[in-house]
Write a structure and sequence with these properties.
Length: 186
């Protein structure tokens, strides 16, 4: 294993205002441990309770979606890995980003769903949430991007942003970005 320039990495994280970064296989217990560390850090920094709740909820939803998708696909440890970054932007808003390898068709559908939600205002998101809540669940099929994605869009202070990039081996890398905090210039 190569020796890392930890000081350089630390400087990069500080310059980019990264509070937490994870890259690798993600388990239920790891999601919980990182979530607890994130919540404790934000509470220790005396961050407003609503912001702590929103950041934590979005982080949990993103990472659990990644874990559930990898399980449904039967991915091995390498393909089941996630990349998660939580930081702040220039306005002091929290930025939660997570990504994982996906089948290209699944990534395209999810990216389209995110774009659709990003075009909605608060009232439209509330109506979509209520509609999805009342919709019958397909126990045999995958739940897909339903309530959780809409809930993230409702909690975010800016539209969700999704990106899909081609990856090696015929897969794609899907990433999702949510911003929480006072509305500022995007």
């Amino acid at each position: 294993m190569n020796q890392f320039d930890l000081y350089g990495l630390r400087q990069h994280f500080q310059t980019q205002r990264i509070l937490l970064c994870f890259n690798g296989p993600i388990s239920r217990s790891l999601i919980e441990e990182i979530g607890n560390a994130l919540k404790n850090y934000m509470e220790a920094e005396r961050i407003e309770a609503d912001a702590v709740t929103d950041v934590f909820a979005i982080y949990i939803e993103m990472t659990q979606n990644i874990r559930h998708y990898a399980t449904r696909q039967g991915y091995g440890e390498t393909d089941a890995a996630a990349t998660v970054v939580i930081g702040t932007d220039e306005s002091g808003r929290y930025v939660i980003e997570a990504g994982n390898r996906v089948e290209p068709a699944d990534g395209e559908v999810l990216t389209a769903q995110v774009r659709e939600l990003a075009a909605m205002d608060a009232a439209e998101l509330k109506a979509a949430y209520k509609k999805q809540l009342r919709a019958p669940r397909d126990e045999a099929g995958a739940s897909g991007a339903g309530l959780g994605l809409i809930d993230m869009a409702r909690r975010a202070s800016a539209p969700l942003v999704a990106e899909l990039k081609n990856d090696e081996g015929g897969q794609a890398f899907f990433s999702l970005r949510a911003v929480v905090g006072p509305r500022g210039d995007d």
